[in-house]
Amino acid sequence: MQLPDPREFGWELKNFDNAHSTVTHLPDGRTLFEVDHPPVRDVTAEMLAWWYGVYADLALVIDGDVQPAFLVSHPQDHISLGSEKAAPDGPLRVGDFLLIQEAYQRNPKYALDERLEVVALDESRFALKASRRGVTVADLEFRFEDGPEGATFTNHLTVGVESGWLKPLVNRVMIPWLYYEEKNYAWVLHTVEEVGNFENFLPEIFARRDQGMTISWDRNRVSDSQNRPPQC
């Protein structure tokens, strides 16, 4: 897995001071990781639902430089994001798949290379699952809603098998090997940085969504911000 060079947009990423995380060992043997983020300023649930629908195929032209939207959303850790969709020209829908590569804190030891199925996408949540031989081994859910100070946002990652013959092997052997403390720490920091980064670009990109799947944002042009369409 080849890490691209870090992207520099002049944005400061958030840190652990801005979020709260917990780890819960569930009665069925699975492990639940939760991250509760502070309000995402100037971002709405509508923006987030739109973003997750298009971010696998969206291109952003920021100050003249073309970038896949996924690489903008985390300028350091994201590597690539592709999609397998029933409607190739439309947004992601339930039943579609994402092909994702990223490395938390740019460390190859903390890399993710996964095919994830979309199981929910609306203005309250975006949910994915990873499977092995038809058995779900991980569920990832992003929950969001509008709040007085910006969108509230939580991440829920549940790893392990809920039932079946693979449950003892996966929950007792594979999960501790795949999700050890240092990697969990790196994932939590990654998601804090990624969610907090929405404040830096998503309102501007969403306001230009009528441009289609290649959106230009020139931060050096005053008229580019003055002529934005109003947000609903």
From TrEMBL:
Annotated source species: Shimia sagamensis
Protein name: Uncharacterized protein
